[in-house]
Amino acid sequence: MFVIVARSEQEMAERAADLVEAEMQRHVSPVLGLATGSTPIPLYEELIRRHREQGLDFSTCITFNLDEYVGSAPDHAESYRRFMNEQLFDHININPKNSHVPDGTIADLEAIERFCEEYEKRIADIGGIDLQVLGIGANGHIGFNEPGSSLGSLTRIKTLTAKTREDNARFFSSLDEVPRYAITMGIGTILNARKVVLLATGKGKCAAVAAALEGPVSSACPASALQLHRYATFVLDEDAASQLTLEGYHRT
Ligand code: PGA
Fold this sequence. Notes:
The chain is an alpha/beta fold. It has helices at residues 9-26, 41-54, 80-87, 109-125, 162-168, 187-192, 206-214, 247-251, and strands at 2-6, 31-34, 62-65, 67-69, 99-100, 131-134, 156-159, 181-184, 195-200, 232-237. Helix 7 (206-214) links the parallel strand 9 (195-200) and strand 10 (232-237).
């Protein structure tokens, strides 16, 4: 595990963008796994800046997003497709056909299951994800893999916990409007990515970060599965790192 404790939001964004850019330069058609949420926004802003000012080229880049709410049309204010368009895709030269976000419009359960299998197949057919960007929930979730998720799981439909729905209610006009289900890559899908970069900021994440990095590998903290990954980097701010007992070691 690699741990970077950054001194500012800007430093976090730059360190994470360096990892993404390095991966983009390593492959003719880099395959990026992307995340939504508040935490990666500064990273996306930095990538947009590098595209505009330094010509960082996304024209051959292929992306797969982690998750999407079930019941959310692409133009819905809170859909993750819309989030990604607004926060990143509309501002870089990615071919829209190359950006994949799970389809939140499918209502029928069997059709959702078929879609999830197809999503996994598309990732596999393209040769797998080179680098997966992740946030982490206060309960240790990655994607919408809530505590208790199988560590070998693949893309599937999951029920959101009450805590996650409460955490995400800030984006909706009321808690009642927060969807109850999501399509999410599984923990196994995430572990299959060749590299992983997990971003976390704030005191609200420090317990989850400590459990992920220093606790036992357990589905009680889905992010702890990253201890099994060969190339996982945590990029943290001081607050998110504040419960790490090995924090001094990680800094060296
Ligand atoms: P956040 O969400 O970046 O909005 O805190 C992270 C997550 O729930 O994975």
